[in-house]
Amino acid sequence: MNFSDHPVLIFDGACGTNLQQMTIPDEAWQGCEGCNEALNLYAPEFIVRLHSEMLDAGAMVIETDTFGASSVVLAEYGLQDQVKKINRLAVEHAHKAIAGRKEKYIAGSVGPGTKLPSLGHIEVSELASSTREQIEALLEAGVDCLIIETCQDLLQVKTAVVAAFEVLAAAKLDLPVLVSVTIEQQGTMLVGSDIAAVVATLEPYPIFSLGLNCATGPQDMRSHIHYLSQHWPQRISCIPNQGLPEVVNGQTHYPLQPDDYAQQMYDFVREEGVSMVGGCCGTGPEHIARLVEKLAGVKPAVREVSR
Question: Rounded CA gap, 137 and 88, in Å?
Fold first, then answer.
């Protein structure tokens, strides 16, 4: 069965928050603390272990540890000349974890970067060039799809989508391009666009799926997922945080327990026709395991889309 043939695709859980819970020696970071992507170079065993734990929990799709692996972000750590190598190694680590497992897929993760064009932080041409370089490396290394995720700026996501299809066309490849935006608790993206603007902007492009990730738990995504269910013609993804973060004894805590998380995701699949689910900040292998159990044999609701 191919990637696109599965009625429901279950993605892995969080990368960053799970790495934070591992006992990673200070020296493993080689002075790049805070740059998870540097672990692909200096401590790959932790990346392979994380992927393996998610796969053991039943995840069908694992995302590469490349969320910030563009030159724009890596320059903050002096690693801007390591873009190709970091992305290639990240895909290799994912392949190592998947080896011998059937019907498992690798999504090349492309994050939003740390500079938003709509706010004047970066020129569109520089962002496009940086994104193309990263995507080229991911494709050369052998990903099954691309996920442009945690998008906070419509100009940023449109730039990334155009870059992705340009690189795919140049490489004569036809791989799914997934897009996932981040809607803050106030109901819009960071730069103020709502979900209707997202749909209107992205509908002309042949992207495989559109959905939400990060920022909030599933509860605060309900109205936006419902809108997508009614107005987005392709597949819908939902990859929320483990609830809204709280500070407990000076530490960030995500409150949503695995059973509650799995139930809410089940409701999205059965009520709104969501067909791609997984976990963002806070979600661990136990959340994915319960999600897999809950969705066994479940098919997404049939949607009637108004255009």
Answer: 6
Of 254, 252, 242, 245, nearest to 279 (Cα)? 242
What does the pLDDT look like over 231-286, one tens digit per residue? 999 999 999 999 887 777 777 778 899 999 999 999 999 999 999 999 999 999 99
Q: Determine the Cα–Cα distance for residues 53 and 97; give it in Å rounded to an integer.
A: 9
* Helices of type H across 273-304: 285-294
Residue 210 and residue 154: Cα distance in Å, rounded? 13
Cα 248 to Cα 122: distance, rounded to the nearest angstrom = 36
Interatomic CA distance for residues 203 and 72, integer angstroms = 28
Q: Is the pLDDT of residue 223 over 80?
A: yes
Q: Is 276 helix (H, G, I), strand (E, B) or coil?
A: strand
What domains sit in the chain, N to C, each tagged with a CATH number?
Answer: 3-294 (3.20.20.330)
pLDDT per residue as tens digits for the range 141-165: 999 999 999 999 999 999 999 999 9
Angle 105-49-279 from CA coordinates, rounded to 5°: 55
Distance between CA 291 and CA 96 in Å, rounded?
24
219 pLDDT exceeds 90? yes
Q: Residue 48 pLDDT more than 80?
A: yes
- Provide the token pair at 238: 């939902």
Q: How many residues does the chain have?
A: 307
HSE at residue 238, side-chain half, CA atoms within 13 A, is 31
Q: Give the global pTM.
A: 0.96
Query: Does 191 score more than 80 pLDDT?
Result: yes
Instruction: Specify the DSSP class assigned to residue 122.
Output: S
Which of helix, strand or coil describes residue 240?
coil
- Cβ–Cβ < 8 Å for 233, 202: no
The CA radius of gyration of the chain, in Å to the nearest whole number, is: 18
Q: Are 84 and 135 in contact (CB under 8 A)?
A: no
Separation CA 188–CA 195 (nearest Å):
7
